[in-house]
Specification:
Length: 392
């Protein structure tokens, strides 16, 4: 059985009426929640609702016409609705809907679009400002981390400096106590026992030797401070190194004799040097004293020289335990100490070699050391050759 064409048309129209009714009911129920998303969304909902209402009314009109034509309802509806003046009704409805939609677009859509674009621009600017602020905060955070790290490093350095100061105080007290004990013990013994032709010279000699060691330590410390401040004045003059060595050896004879050491002096015939005789004497005393300290009993210490490029190179060589390779570049640093494995030297302030370096450099020379563990050490320094010797 075939359905007549008007019946099919009527069914399609009433199906459209049901669909659009459901759609419009959904929009009516949800429009308040959806309009909160954006003004543009609200305007679009109004446009869709108006267009849907137009389509629904148009579908009702043509559905009624088709239903009447199919004979489902009275044909009077068909005759009435198909009159020319009523046929224009859907067209007028379309025109009114279009004009309404245009009105809504002009007075709501475009202003809302403009507002949203302005808001987006403001949001973009705010986002850029936040990005800049975030970058600045990151930079500030990095600077704070750097400052924190620097403060930690400074704190560690201060702690190390405090520890070094405490260690220095301990070392100075320890180093000074030994010679001071010799001085006090010798003098007290002479005072108690009285003059003795055999004992008194030895005790007084030990006391003088201890006093001299104390004086050298104090002088080294004071002169290092002066050189660091650039306040130490040098008396540059022509110097006979052999005479300086002889004087220096005489001042440490007691130390040499105490350990039964032999000193081989090879400075005879050395050219005249240019420098401060007193400073050079103290440099030799420090280097020889260092060699005595680490040399085994009965060993030999050699003091030699060579000449090259207008400089006299003086060497002090011992047969002690040597210096570890990792300490060679630091032995002349202030307060640095080296106690080689198997060494017999006691604690030291580490100022003697520092004084030697600063003093030699102040006179236009240089200083260094070569050493191997178990093979002894060779400390050397250079001073300029005097002009008179160069002329010869």
């Amino acid at each position: 059985m075939h359905l007549p064409y008007p019946m099919i048309t009527a069914g399609v129209y009433w199906l459209l009426i049901v669909c659009w009714s459901v759609i419009l009911a959904f929009y009516w129920r949800e429009h308040r929640r959806l309009t909160q998303l954006s003004p543009m969304v609200g305007t679009m909902l109004v446009v869709v609702f108006l267009d849907g209402a137009r389509t629904l009314l148009e579908s009702v009109y043509f559905g009624t016409v088709a239903t009447s034509q199919a004979g489902v309802i009275s044909r009077d509806f068909y005759e009435v609705l198909t009159e020319p003046q009523l046929v224009l009704a859907p067209k007028l409805l379309n025109v009114c809907s279009a004009l309404t939609i245009i009105f809504v677009l002009l007075y709501r859509w475009f202003p809302a679009l403009k507002v949203e674009m302005e808001q987006r621009i403001l949001l973009q600017q705010a986002h850029e400002e936040l990005s800049v602020t975030h970058s600045e905060l990151q930079s500030t955070h990095a600077e704070l981390q750097t400052t924190h790290t620097a403060l930690n490093d400074t704190l560690v350095q201060l702690q190390q400096a405090q520890e070094a100061q405490d260690a220095l105080t301990h070392m100075i007290v320890h180093d000074m106590r030994t010679p001071l004990t010799s001085v006090i013990t010798g003098l007290q013994t002479v005072q108690v026992v009285g003059p003795d032709p055999v004992l008194t010279p030895e005790l007084v000699g030990n006391a003088l030797s201890g006093a001299d060691r104390l004086l050298r330590m104090v002088n080294d410390l004071l002169d290092i401070n002066k050189m660091e401040a650039g306040a130490l004045s040098l008396e540059q003059a022509d110097v006979d190194l052999a005479d300086v060595l002889s004087t220096a050896s005489a001042m440490i004879d007691a130390l040499i004799a105490e350990k039964g050491l032999e000193v081989s002096q090879e400075l005879d015939g050395a050219p005249t040097a240019r420098g401060d005789a007193e400073i050079l004497r103290r440099v030799l005393i420090n280097l020889m004293g260092n060699a005595i300290k680490f040399s085994p009993d009965g060993a030999c210490i050699t003091v030699g020289h060579s000449v090259s490029d207008g400089q006299i190179r003086v060497t002090v060589t011992d047969t002690g335990p040597g210096i570890p390779a990792d300490h060679l570049e630091r032995v002349f640093e202030k307060f640095h100490q080296v106690t080689p494995k198997g060494g017999n030297g006691g604690p030291s302030t580490g100022l003697g070699l520092t004084f030697c370096r600063m003093a030699v450099e102040a006179m236009g020379g240089s200083i260094g050391v070569t050493s191997e563990l178990g093979q002894g050490s060779c400390f050397w320094f250079t001073v300029p050759v005097a002009a008179a010797s160069e002329a010869r």
